[in-house]
Design goal:
Calcium-transporting ATPase, cytoplasmic transduction domain A, Rossmann fold, nine-stranded mixed beta sheet, 35 strands
């Protein structure tokens, strides 16, 4: 199809004329600007959008409905402002909270949009901001700058207009990638004047989310040039090792046109599980209230009819209303009167608790990263309780688990291991220093003095060849800055190896198209490069064929142990020792490479070189023929040794994952990096262990077609775990159990790629479209599948993955990361958390129930879109196991007690209706109803919601099993709500009927038996009962807790004195209708005894239940674990950098970050500058 996205260079007017519709008759510019907007509101949309979001809560809709009812005087039993005022406070508080959160997003947007960049304006480049970039502009980027939009590379300061970019913030890969401009723009656009005159037109595909695909064409000066992804610089990548480069803006970021923004997903309002449950409970309570009001209204109609029949002399009073009319009006009156059963003050207190607990997270010094002055930040204040219910964590690798730092740690040369842990690293070196290590150069981290001294003596030919190989066999470029050599490596692994060789006396100095110069222990030698055998993921190795100054031809090879060891000429004692060293390095989770060499005769080289030259110009099967020739040359090698590089983890990552596992939280690693690298990190952070059965897609699927490639493993899992096998022959099932016979089958890990995930999702979509497709799962008794087949494919995969202890997904795109999270949420209904640091993690962070951004690194977009920001992955353990568990405990106790105290105090209105002719007459004084939930009972439960703890922070980390309680919803669920409702009903019945029983015959000249005294007695009985209940339920007492209980009683006394004073009654008798009611009632000893009796009877059941639980041992899961923590304490997880593991079978710890194609750049001379001269 013809492309419709046309970009004209240096022509803003052309792009501004195009509009496109996006909603009804509204339109926007087709070619957007570059200012991103992650904020949800602006000055015009804040009020309507925020109110729209707030009225998605059923409670708010209910309160508005009741307020509307109160405007009718015939049915109003409470003043209209009694509900309007708290609802307004609730909407204002929530609106302010959302406004504060959104202001933070605006600030983050502003910090990115105001980044400086150079834009061509007229005939020169001027410093402007990212927000000023438009499609068609030409921008100039300097070394280490971030690409502000999706650009077509026009030219650069590098030879052949190469541009090296780091895409760690996009796909998680740490190795540098190269992009190359078209030859025509490289040659013609060499000055600012030529840039200003450039009028090329690019026609390409519409904005899309395909990160690794691009198709287009450049039309300029009557010729058309094809464009692909190798010419494109994506927004978010960082320019490396390139002084200057120039690009034409194709896609900008404002309307999510850039590819990385297309992968970021949309902002969604997140709600916790408790929020969803509260919405449902509000509906249930509302329906119960309607039924109750209806029942009381019907009863009032019957009562009115009976009353009129018995008292016919009062017919004139009722002549205007029939019993049916009376029942109708009473129905709405009871609806208004009982509406306070759903207290708005609970939602107001909710917001305050969330806000303060968020501040506790922000103020936690244990999550403060002093090295970079970065505290933890709760960017969302309404998700704290869900931190205590996480079941799955989806983590990025690069920058989240690792530090992006590769360091040479150990090596094995001719069977001898050098490096930390060998006993030599603490020795003092002989002499005053190393003459070949010039001052000011980067250090490699080699600290084994024995290795340094052996290299200096130069009497070991194997060590000499080993170090020479490290200095020769690579694709690193070097820049001589006078007093310092700066290496520009496409791979951090290669840079670490070259630095190690340099610190040991073999310094890489320079290279040309066909030579490489190194300094060997102070002597400069130039080698002729005869051929470079490039690395790729299939070969897992690279080689260089060189001729030394003496004319000897040697092949130097480095690669994975699995491919190098099988190409050796012979195997002797040193090879056996090297294999043992590789096992040791693997146990220490180091990234290993084997290095080998061999001498090549002149005749062999000439014959091979002739065939290599012929293969290099083949038009068909060129790659396969070259691979065959490389394979032929890389035989009969002599093993020199092995290298071990440490991909440094962030501090505390292994210990954090260990604790999370004990807390029944499963950690999945989703990375754009290669499988070998991801697996190595999996072992390093203890996500994978040697006793696990590793399920890889290539080992369990053999058929290339999309259905078979995944159905074999999934159907095998389905049959193994559900006994659904339809026949006795299940080869895939047997293969699953035979992957690692020694490993227990219940400890499994799955490692899959993005391509495999695409097949799963694609097949699901195909099955949904083709419901008649004959492929079916085999079910018990031949029953038909009950669900859509596409959903079964996805569900089978999710069931398999969630049954494993670890899951690693490699080579996944940002969109696939989000899809993985979505699959687990869809099929497991689990609470998920996603954590990452780069723009490639934004979509995943937005999709998960909780999004955590790692701050302090290069990317800011992950933090901008996150709910919580941390500086280190290790802080996650405290965020979840301490703050998360505490917040869940506090909110659950808060809800239980709030519902209990509301039912206990206010359901007496229902019982009073049975004794007041079923009229909607309130039992309590109006001020008691207004202040009961705001002042009299709010403060004790507020202290619980802010400060409650069952165990200390230290114990929470020592016993992560306590976290399981939140995952299982034990502290607040429908059963707990039902028990709370019954408890509240019981308390209200006891408080009401004990008082009624006492007042029934309580008459006389000095007796208190009036309506006001009865109301005060019931109210005080209920109030004291709920206060004692919260006292019994509070586990963690502070001075603040005591003050809150005391304040509740004092406020009751104070407001009772103020609202029931005779002076107030004289001023406004309708507003203060209870003059001296409390004084009259409480001065009667009988009333005090009634209150005490009600308190004792209400408290005895709670004390009895607690005693029986303690005696019979019928504790909850949480209490059992707490009891274990107190009686049988176990030592905490020991924090150390590495834990030795037992090994069931030898595994390769090979990992190497590199991009194919760099050898070709070097041999063609595309990446080479003029050679510097180095003297001896």
């Amino acid at each position: 199809p013809a492309f419709t996205w046309e970009v004209r260079a240096n022509d803003r007017g052309y792009h501004r004329q195009f509009k496109k519709k996006f909603a009804f008759c509204l339109s926007k510019r087709k070619y957007s600007g570059n200012a991103i907007r992650t904020a949800k509101y602006n000055l015009l949309t804040f009020l309507p959008l925020n109110l729209y979001e707030q009225f998605h809560r059923m409670a708010n809709v209910y309160f508005v409905f009741v307020i509307l009812l109160q405007t009718f005087p015939e049915i109003s039993t409470l003043p209209w402002y009694t509900l309007l005022f708290p609802l307004s406070c609730l909407l204002i508080i929530r609106g302010l909270r959302d406004l504060i959160d959104d202001i933070g997003r605006h600030r983050s947007d502003r910090s990115i949009n105001s980044r400086p960049c150079e834009i061509l304006a007229g005939k020169s480049f001027r410093w402007q901001q990212w927000r000023d970039i438009c499609v068609g502009d030409i921008v100039r980027l300097r070394k280490d700058s971030i690409v502000p939009a999706d650009l077509l590379l026009l030219c650069s300061s590098e030879p052949s207009s190469l541009c090296y970019v780091e895409t760690a913030d996009i796909d998680g890969e740490t190795n540098l990638k190269f992009r190359q401009a078209l030859l025509v723009t490289h040659q013609e656009l060499g000055s600012e004047e030529s840039m200003a005159a450039f009028d090329g037109r690019v026609t390409c595909e519409e904005p899309n989310s395909r990160m690794h695909s691009f198709t287009g064409a450049l039309r300029w000066r009557g010729r058309t040039h094809a464009l692909d992804s190798d010419r494109l610089l994506l927004r978010g990548c960082r320019v490396r090792n390139t002084a200057l480069c120039y690009g034409l803006v194709l896609y900008a970021g404002e309307w999510f046109d850039s590819k990385i923004m297309r992968n970021c997903g949309k902002i969604k309002r997140k709600k916790t599980k408790l929020d969803h449950m509260m919405d449902r409970l509000v509906v249930v309570i509302f329906l119960v209230l309607l039924v109750t009001s209806l029942g009381l209204a019907v009863a009032s109609g019957f009562w009115a009819r009976t009353f009129q029949e018995k008292h016919s002399y009062l017919a004139a009073v009722y002549k205007h209303t029939s019993p049916a009319q009376q029942a109708f009006l009473n129905f709405w009156g009871f609806t208004i009167l009982l509406s306070i059963i759903i207290p708005m003050s609970m939602y107001i207190t909710f917001e305050f608790i969330y806000l303060v607990n968020s501040c506790f997270i922000n103020w936690d010094l244990e999550m403060y990263y002093g090295a970079k002055d970065i505290p933890a930040e709760a960017r969302s204040t309404s998700l704290n309780d869900q931190l205590g219910q996480i079941e799955f964590i989806f983590s990025d690798k690069t920058g989240t688990l690792t530090q992006n730092i590769m360091s040479f740690k150990k090596c094995c040369v001719n069977g001898t291991i050098y490096g930390p842990g060998t006993g030599h690293e603490n020795k003092q070196p002989r002499g005053s220093g190393l003459a070949w290590d010039p001052p000011g150069e980067q250090k490699s981290g080699v600290c084994d003095v024995t290795l340094l001294e052996a290299a200096q003596r130069d009497n070991d030919p194997v060590l000499r060849e080993f170090l020479r190989l490290l200095a020769l066999c690579h694709t690193v470029m070097v820049e001589d800055r006078g007093d310092q050599l700066v290496y520009q490596a496409a791979s951090p692994d290669e840079e670490a190896l070259v630095l190690a060789a340099r610190s040991l006396g073999y310094v890489f100095l320079a290279r040309t198209q066909d030579t490489i110069t190194i300094r060997e222990l102070g002597r400069t030698r130039t080698y002729e490069v005869l051929a470079m055998l490039d690395f790729n993921s299939d070969r897992k190795r690279m080689s260089v064929l060189v001729r030394d100054p003496q004319g000897t031809i040697r092949l130097y090879t480095k690669g994975a142990d699995t491919v190098i060891l099988e190409r050796l000429r012979r195997r002797g004692p040193s090879e056996t020792l090297t294999e043992r060293a590789l096992d040791r390095f693997a146990e220490e989770t180091l990234r290993t490479l084997c290095v080998a060499s061999r001498e090549v005769s002149e005749a062999e080289f000439r014959a091979w070189s002739r065939r290599h030259g012929e293969a290099a110009v083949l038009l068909q099967d060129r790659a396969r023929e070259l691979d065959r020739l490389y394979e032929e040359m890389e035989q009969n090698l002599q093993l020199l040794g092995a290298t071990a590089i440490e991909d440094k983890l962030q501090d505390g990552v292994p210990e954090t994952i260990q604790l999370l596992k004990l807390a029944n939280i499963k950690v999945w690693v989703l990375t754009g990096d290669k499988q070998e690298t991801a697996m190595n990190i999996g072992y390093a952070c203890r996500l994978l262990t040697d006793d696990m059965e590793i399920l890889e897609e290539k080992e369990v699927s053999s058929c290339p077609s999309p259905p078979s490639s995944h159905s074999e493993i999934l159907q095998a899992y389905w049959e193994n775990n559900n006994n659904l096998s339809g026949s006795g022959d299940a080869p895939s099932s047997r293969r699953l159990s035979q992957q690692c016979p020694e490993a227990p089958c219940h400890k499994r890990a799955v490692i899959i790629s993005g391509d495999y995930l695409d097949k799963i999702l694609h097949t699901g979509e195909v099955l949904k479209e083709k419901k008649g497709w004959p492929w079916r799962w085999r079910c018990c008794d031949g029953a038909e599948a009950a669900q859509d087949q596409g959903g079964l494919v996805e569900k089978a995969f999710v069931d398999l993955a969630t049954s494993c202890q670890a899951v690693i997904c490699c080579r996944v795109t940002p969109k696939q990361k989000a899809l993985m999270v979505q699959l687990v949420k869809k099929h497991k209904k689990a609470v998920t958390l996603a954590i990452g640091d780069g723009a490639n993690d934004v979509n995943m962070i937005k999709t998960a129930d909780i999004g955590v951004g790692i701050s302090g690194l290069e990317g800011l977009q992950a933090v901008q879109c996150s709910d919580y920001a941390l500086a280190q992955f290790s802080f996650l353990q405290r965020l979840l196991l301490v703050h998360g568990r505490w917040n869940y405990l506090r909110i659950c106790k808060f809800l239980r007690y709030f519902f209990y105290k509301t039912f206990a105090g206010l359901l007496a209105q229902v019982w009073f209706a049975f004794h007041s002719g079923f009229t909607a007459q309130p039992l309590y004084e109006g001020w008691f109803l207004a202040l009961y939930n705001i002042f009299y009972t709010a403060y004790p439960v507020l202290s619980v919601g802010l400060l409650e703890q069952d165990v200390s922070a230290k114990k929470s980390l020592e016993f992560p099993e306590l976290y399981v309680v939140g995952q299982q919803d034990e502290l607040f669920n429908y059963r707990v709500f039902g028990v709370t409702l019954l408890h509240g009903v019981g308390t209200s019945l006891i408080s009401f009927y004990i008082a009624l029983w006492a007042f029934e015959d309580h008459v006389g000249t000095k007796a208190v038996g009036d309506y006001e005294s009865f109301s005060v007695t019931v109210a005080l009985s209920a109030l004291l009962s709920v206060l004692v209940e919260i006292i019994l339920d509070t586990k963690y007492w502070t001075v603040f807790s005591f003050l809150m209980v005391t304040a509740s009683l004092l406020l009751f006394c104070l407001f009772s004195f103020l609202t029931q004073s005779v002076d107030a009654f004289r001023i406004a008798p309708a507003i203060f209708p209870f003059p001296d009611a409390s004084w009259n009632a409480l001065t009667d000893p009988c009333v005090l005894l009634v209150v005490l009796l009600s308190l004792v009877v209400n408290t005895l059941p709670s004390l009895t239940v607690r005693a029986l639980r303690a005696i019979l041992g019928r504790a909850t899961t949480q209490q059992k674990i707490q009891l274990k923590a107190k009686r049988d304490p176990e030592p905490p997880v020991e924090l150390r950098s590495h834990v030795p593991r037992g090994s069931f079978c030898r595994r390769s710890s090979y990992a190497f970050s590199h991009q194919e194609g760099y050898a070709g750049l070097i041999t063609r001379g595309d990446s080479l500058r003029a050679r510097a001269t180095h003297g001896t």
